[in-house]
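Need tokens for this chain, all 193 residues.
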Amino acid sequence: MKTLNFILSLLKVFFLIPFISVFGQEFQLDTGYSIIEPDYRMDSLYWLTPPGDREPISIFLTLSGDSLNYFQELTLIEAETYEGYKIYSLKNTQLKNVKEIVHVQLEYFACCSSIENHYYLVTDKDEWVKLPILDYIACDGPEAFKEYRFPSQEFGIQDQIIETLSFPDSAYLVDSVAVLRELKWNGSGVVVE
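Here are the structure tokens for all 193 residues:
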């Protein structure tokens, strides 16, 4: 009987894990990319200029270790409260002609955190297609937040990108979503429905 239970347990592992890995892909932190940031914090001219008159600060998304070439230029909306960035990627996109999705998250902090999310679809031809920026405020505990969901993710819809209001549980794992907008990927561009 113990042998039968052991075999059944092994079968569950071998059949359940591949199912979860195909239908529950989530973004993973990606150290293959980095952000080049100018050292504006040490620039006395920046701080002597009144806030409304300051030039925007540009930062650049690049491959880690390659400071000469960049893929995308981003602008810091509030350099004074900018805390940093995180870069995630989703390799199994299940979108036609898309080999990877890169998600850059910029965080600003005053009394609450302001999160600015940039999503890029990287095509098989290495073209970068930017989705509209999503941002939200996070103050306490698990709060609903905006994000894009893709076909390979939980709550994803085949051939579509959905903008959701995602509701995390007490462990900060998304347990339900409300669809705010649907975007159709036609293999070369995004169509808002």
